[in-house]
Amino acid sequence: MGKTALVVGATGLIGRELVEQLLESDRYDAVWIVVRRSKRWSHPKLHEVVGFEEMDAALPQIDDVYCALGTTIAVAGSQEAFKQVDLELPLEVARVAKAHGATRYAVVSAQGASLRSSFFYNRVKGELENALRVFNFRHLIIARPSLLLGERDSFRLGEKAAEVISRPFRSLLLEKTPEVAPIQALHVARALIMASEEGEGIEVLTSGMMQRMSR
């Protein structure tokens, strides 16, 4: 029998890559996603739950969780709304998934995540990482990517500008400073899935580590 995966944040940049790669993986017989609005994706292994409030009642037994939930303050509209998406929802997913048997939780955090960070975004990510440790998953995987590359549904001016500026130096950055080089979303997804093949305890994947895992 194959395993069952749960993906939240499935419509985002990394989430879409996770779903696609998990559906192709022989390790999983079923991939469940929780979305706010139905995507009507069609695949024999894919199952959809519409609405996070329906998650607990609708989910079956889960093995591995992949959490790629994330937004920006500009999109969310306020710091509190941002924390709802980037902190409270991932923790609620952890609670529900643990109750449904999950032993592995892989989460997309951020480079520089720290409770002591002077940046609100990184402090929230640090708070999330710290809070997830309390659930005592057999294997907690924390990915800390640098600037993400890929096709987004929404336009983010700051990220797009950074991507354009860094483009001429990308090869040099990858060679000399892989920790700060921009990273493709598909490489983050691939690294999370690779890390989920085995392991225990708390595993932190830096951006440079994920770059090397995808070579």
Automatic annotation (TrEMBL):
Q: What Gene3D superfamilies does the entry give?
A: NAD(P)-binding Rossmann-like Domain
Cite the Pfam families for this sequence: NAD_binding_10
Q: Which SUPFAM superfamilies match?
A: NAD(P)-binding Rossmann-fold domains (SSF51735)
Which intervals of the chain form a coiled coil?
Answer: none
In this chain the NAD(P)-binding domain maps to 9-130
Q: What is this protein called?
A: NAD(P)H-binding protein
Q: Which organism does this sequence originate in?
A: Exiguobacterium marinum
